[in-house]
Write a structure and sequence with these properties.
This protein is an alpha+beta fold and 137 residues long. It is built from two helices and five strands, in the order E-H-E-E-E-H-E. The chain has helices at residues 34-48, 91-106, and strands at residues 12-16, 56-60, 72-75, 81-84, 125-129. Helix 1 (34-48) links the parallel strand 1 and strand 2 (56-60). Helix 1 packs across helix 2 (91-106). It is globular.
C-alpha cells in the first residue's frame, strides 16, 4: 500500500492541512487546525476568482515544517519549488499565496524576481526545493 495519492502534475500549492493555527495555538476557538482553515481559504478564493483556475490547490497532512505554522509548498513540474510558512489562515494570506503561485507558474524555472513577489509572501519563505533530478544554482 502506497503512502502517495496521485494529484495533477501541474502548477500547485500544496497546503499542510494539519498545521498549527499560530505559533501559540494548535487550533482556533472551534477546534479546527490552522492548516485546515488555510486550505478552506485557498479553495474559497480559487473558486471565487477565475484567475486562479490554473493553480491546483492540493493538501496533505504534515509538511514537516512544524516550527512554522500554516505552511505551503508552491511547485510546478521542472521548476524550483518553495516552502513558505507562518501565515495567518485567512483570505489575505490565501490571496498572497495564490498570487505568488501565478507568478511562479509563469516563470521559466520557478525563479520569480523579488519585485514581483506579492507583499504578503515576503518574509514567509522557509526553503527552496530543486526539481527532481536537478540542483539549483
Amino acid at each position: 500500500m502506497s503512502i502517495f495519492t496521485p494529484v495533477a502534475d501541474s502548477a500547485a500549492v500544496v497546503a499542510c492541512n494539519t498545521c498549527r493555527f499560530s505559533a501559540d495555538c494548535k487550533d482556533d476557538g472551534d477546534g479546527v487546525r490552522g492548516g485546515r482553515r488555510l486550505v478552506e481559504a485557498l479553495r474559497a478564493l480559487q473558486q471565487s476568482d477565475p484567475r486562479y483556475a490554473s493553480i491546483s490547490v492540493q493538501e496533505m497532512p504534515c509538511l514537516f515544517a512544524c516550527a512554522d505554522h500554516c505552511t505551503v509548498h508552491v511547485r510546478a513540474p521542472g521548476k524550483v519549488g518553495y516552502v513558505l510558512g507562518r501565515f495567518a489562515p485567512d483570505a489575505e494570506a490565501a490571496r498572497a499565496i495564490l498570487d505568488y503561485g501565478l507568478c511562479h507558474a509563469a516563470s521559466d524555472e520557478g525563479r520569480v524576481p523579488f519585485r514581483e513577489w506579492p507583499q504578503g509572501v515576503k518574509g514567509h519563505f522557509i526553503v527552496r526545493v530543486p526539481p527532481a533530478g536537478y540542483v539549483a544554482e
